[in-house]
Structures are given as structure tokens and as C-alpha cells.
Design a protein that fits this description.
The chain is an alpha+beta fold. Helices cover 19% and strands 28% of the residues. The strands form 3 sheets. Strands 9, 10, 11, 12, 13, 14 and 15 form a 7-stranded mixed β-sheet that branches. Helix 3 (117-123) runs parallel beside helix 4 (139-152).
Length: 260
Amino acid sequence: MTAAALAAAPLPALAAAPVLRPEALPEGGRGVIGAVHDGDTIRFKGGVVDIRLVGIQAPKLPQGRRNLAAWPMADESRAALRAMLEGHEITLRLPTTAKDRNGRILAHLIRDDGLWIQENMLKEGWARVYTFPDNRLFARDLYAAEAMARAARRGLWSHPDYALRKPDPLALKADIGTYQIIEGVVSETAKVRGRVYLNFGEDYRTDFTASIAPEVMPLFNAAKLDLLKLKGRAVRIRGYVRDFNGPAVDLTHPEQIEQL
């Protein structure tokens, strides 16, 4: 089945049994590579719909968007993905949500020799883990692959733009509007009108803070993650940094927090 055929096909129901690897997900078509837009977006040969590699984020290329500059090492990431895919048939495995807001197919990619492309992109250091509330399968495996590349300073991890950040509010000002991974110790926790705050400094009005809205709290409860007990714990937070009483990250699902 081509990507074009998949676009019109209904999403198969997921099995009730726990899913351990992408191969257990419903198949969403097979094909060979046509275009590689960047390190996490492709199109099958003869296809008309783009395919987004769910679970990872690679450096972005403008792709005709005037206001978007290429991220550092974006060309190298795209070249690495192309090298992994060329000469192979690729099977799509569909996660919980099969399309994103831009109409791209969300899928895990499995090469004809069994290679899980997302995992390999992370192991080689050409992407970072990137999950969503409705697409967060295999986060533990993906984080393990990312950690291997980071420890070896492979790929992106050799470039300062992708280095782990400290919860330093002055330094993080330069990262407003970008996706970052921040590692530090939670100095205080608080719950105000149902919203939970993880503070990384003495002054919540200026220091780095992670916040969790009441409407997403059920996901954290289901994961048995007591956010208020993270005080004094070393954690790794990932997400887009915004400016609200100092640099802040909004957490929408528990996989955005790694306890160290």
C-alpha cells in the first residue's frame, strides 16, 4: 500500500495486549523512499502524503518556509536518514494517532532487515526524543537510544546548540522559543488552583519553572508520578521554552520528565 492509499484508509484498531516494540503495531503500508525532507520527514516514491517519524525530532530545514532558518546539522541529519532508507523497503507501523495537524502520516519506520529507524537515528545522534500526550509509545527505549549517542557525543551531541541546558534563567533567556532539554534539581514544588509548579530556584518569578495544567494531570496520575514529591530530585525536563515569570516549560505528559 502506498502512502497515498494509506491516507484514505481507516486506522486499524490497536490490540488490547501491551505493545512492546513497533513491530506489534498495525501495519500502515510499505514502500521505498522517494524524498527525504529532513531527518524526520519523508515521502514514499509515488506517494502524495508526507510521513513524519513519530517519537523523534531532527533538526529542521526551511522547506520553502521563508521565516524558518535551517537548524544546525540539519543537512547531516537528512543525509543520515537517507543513507538508512535507500535501497530498502520500509514498513509503516501506526501509533495511537495516525496523522498530525498538518496531515502528515505519523508512523514508526521498520526497514526490511528489521532495523527500527527511529531508534537508529537516536543511537547515531541525528535526532532527539520528542513525544506527545497521544503519541508516547516506546519512550523508555527511545530515551535509552538517545542516551547512548549523548554519552558518546555523536551527531547532534557534538554541537553546542543541542547540549543539555542547566536551569540557569539568564542563560535560558537565549533559548526562548526553542526546544531544549534542561537538567537540574527541583528546589520546590507547589500546587496553585490545580496547576502544579516545579521550581528550579528560590524565586519563582524569575527562575526556571516547569508547570503542569489541571487538564493534563490525569496522565501523570495514571503514570503514578507524584509531582509534588519531586522536590529535591534531579530531573531532566524537555519541551519548548517560553517566557513566563522567567523561562518556563509546560509539561503535558509524564514522558517529558526523566528522573535521574
